[in-house]
Every structure is written in structure tokens, then in C-alpha cells.
Design a protein that fits this description.
By secondary structure, this protein is an alpha/beta fold. Helices cover 35% and strands 18% of the residues. The protein contains five helices and seven strands; from the N terminus they run E-H-E-H-E-H-E-E-E-H-E-H. It has a seven-stranded parallel beta sheet.
Length: 154
């Protein structure tokens, strides 16, 4: 299981997601350009000393990420407010890449079209979405529950 962040633009959220990846031993991919430098104090503070414990792979553009993904054969699972499949109804694979878009605008149409699945976290009518780090934790938790040997999936 892997998490990929498409051009993240809020350093605190990126740091929090990388901390999540470190704690759950999940590889993290950052698809550039990010909206902040890696030296940003908010990014470092949110990630704390966990940033040294996470495997971070940086891709300098979307096409390079897609080349890496094609070579590894991973499915791309986009988390989006425009998704039709609720994340709890999806069957995850251990080699999936969970993709999260920019906090401000999500992902462009061509990126969404490249996804093998587009999942949504249902929220109350009239509300837009959860914080991206919260969404990452919820979906990653379910994906790991389904793919961890010995876990029971109903």
C-alpha cells in the first residue's frame, strides 16, 4: 500500500500524512511541484521527527509518476469528492496507490481519468469534504484492514 500526494499545497497536511505513513509503514510519493519548500517550518513541525522514518519518493512531474506506476503495475485509487464509489465498498489490493489531490483544487481531469478507481467518503449534504489528512487516514485504515494478512473482511 502506498499514498501519493499530487502537488500538495498545504505543508501541515503533507507533514501529517507523512507522519501517518511513517507510523503505519506505508511508502509515500510526492508528485511535484509542491506548493511549499521541503524546508518549510510548518511541514517540518507537522511531520516532527517522523519524517526520518518514512520512505518518501519524489516525482518531479505527473508523467514521471505515471512511468513509475506503469513499471510497477500498481492500481491508482483516487480519493475525490467527485467519486461515485464509497470507499467502504471498494476492494483494495496491497499494491494499490491511494492518490490525494491538492487541497485547494483536487486533481486535473487527465489525472482523474488515469485513475483505476475514484472513491468518495460520503459526507452530510451541503458539506464539501474532510481535511485531506483525515481522508487519507480513513481510507488508508480501511485499505490496510482489508489487505493485512489475518484481518477479517466482511
Amino acid at each position: 500500500m502506498r499514498i501519493a500526494l499530487f502537488q500538495p499545497d498545504i505543508p501541515q497536511n503533507t507533514g501529517t500524512i507523512l507522519r501517518l505513513c511513517a507510523c503505519l509503514d506505508v511508502e509515500a510519493h510526492i508528485i511535484e511541484p509542491a506548493g511549499f519548500p521541503i524546508s518549510d517550518r510548518h511541514f517540518r513541525r507537522a511531520g516532527m521527527d517522523y519524517l526520518d522514518q518514512v520512505t518518501i519518493i519524489r516525482h518531479d512531474c505527473w508523467s514521471n509518476f505515471e512511468q513509475w506506476r506503469a513499471a510497477t503495475g500498481c492500481r491508482l485509487v483516487l480519493l475525490t469528492t467527485k467519486g461515485l464509489t464509497p470507499y467502504l465498498e471498494y476492494r483494495y489490493s496491497a499494491s494499490d496507490v491511494l492518490l490525494l489531490g491538492r487541497e485547494s483544487v483536487g486533481v486535473p481531469d487527465d489525472v482523474a481519468a488515469a485513475a483505476d478507481a475514484r472513491l468518495v467518503i460520503p459526507v452530510q449534504p451541503g458539506l464539501r469534504s474532510l481535511n485531506v489528512a483525515m481522508a487519507a487516514a480513513m481510507v488508508l485504515g480501511e485499505a490496510l484492514r482489508q489487505t493485512t494478512p489475518g484481518s477479517e473482511v466482511s
